[in-house]
C-alpha cells in the first residue's frame, strides 16, 4: 500500500497484518479521490475509523490542511502513528486513541471531508452521520465518504446529507454524501 498522489505520492504505507483492519486498496483509494477532488485547496478532514490512516494521509497529500484520525485498536494506532511520521509533517495530523463515538463527543471543529469505513457499516454510518450533524461537526458543503461491503444499502438521505455518488469496486462500495 502506498500514497497514490499529491505531495506524498508514491511513499509506502504500513498496514496491520490480520483481520483487525481492512485497508482500502490503492485502486479504490485513487477512485475515491478522483470522485471527490482529486485535489483540494485546504480544509479539515476527519478519518473516524482510521485503520492505517491511509485515507487521511492521502487527503493531506492532495491538499487538505489538517487531519484528525480516530482509532481505538492499539496495534492499529502504532501503524497510524508510523504512517503519520512518514509524512515528516506530523503537526498536520492529530491521532485520537479512542472509539469513534467518544471522539465525536470531544471534537469541536467542523470538517470539510469525513471518511467513514467502520467495521459494521450500515448501522454505524447512519448513526454516525446524524451524530456529526447534531454535533455541528460538518462544515457547509462538507462531503462524507463511506466505504462498505458492496452488499450494504445506505439510504438516499441521512439528516441533511444527500447521496451524491455511489460506485462498486470489486467487493467494496463507495457512497458519497454531500450536505444540502
Automatic annotation (TrEMBL):
Q: Which keywords does this Swiss-Prot/TrEMBL entry list?
A: Methyltransferase, Transferase
Q: What is its EC number?
A: 2.1.1.171
Quote the PROSITE patterns the UniProt record gives: N6_MTASE (PS00092)
Q: Which residues cross the membrane?
A: none
Statement: the UniProt record of this protein carries the keyword Oxidoreductase = no
Q: Which molecular function terms from Gene Ontology are attached? A: 16S rRNA (guanine(966)-N(2))-methyltransferase activity; nucleic acid binding
Question: Has the keyword Zinc-finger been applied to this entry?
Answer: no
- The name of this protein is 16S rRNA (Guanine(966)-N(2))-methyltransferase RsmD
Organism lineage string: Bacteria, Bacillati, Bacillota, Bacilli, Lactobacillales
Gene that encodes the chain: rsmD
Amino acid at each position: 500500500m502506498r500514497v497514490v498522489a499529491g505531495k506524498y505520492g508514491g511513499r509506502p504505507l504500513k498496514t496491520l497484518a490480520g483481520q483487525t483492519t481492512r485497508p482500502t486498496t490503492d485502486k479504490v483509494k485513487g477512485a475515491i479521490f478522483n470522485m471527490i477532488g482529486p485535489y483540494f485547496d485546504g480544509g479539515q478532514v476527519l478519518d473516524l475509523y482510521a485503520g492505517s490512516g491511509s485515507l487521511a494521509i492521502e487527503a493531506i497529500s492532495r491538499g487538505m490542511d489538517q487531519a484528525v484520525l480516530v482509532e481505538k485498536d492499539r496495534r492499529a494506532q502504532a501503524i497510524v502513528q508510523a504512517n503519520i511520521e512518514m509524512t515528516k509533517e506530523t503537526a498536520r495530523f492529530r491521532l485520537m486513541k479512542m472509539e469513534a463515538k467518544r471522539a465525536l463527543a470531544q471534537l469541536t471543529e467542523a470538517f470539510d471531508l469525513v471518511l467513514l469505513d467502520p467495521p459494521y457499516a450500515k448501522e454505524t454510518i447512519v448513526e454516525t452521520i446524524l451524530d456529526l450533524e447534531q454535533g455541528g461537526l460538518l462544515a457547509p458543503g462538507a462531503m462524507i465518504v463511506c466505504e462498505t461491503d458492496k452488499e450494504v444499502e445506505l439510504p438516499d438521505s441521512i439528516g441533511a446529507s444527500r447521496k451524491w455518488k455511489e460506485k462498486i469496486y470489486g467487493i467494496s462500495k463507495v457512497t458519497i454524501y454531500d450536505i444540502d
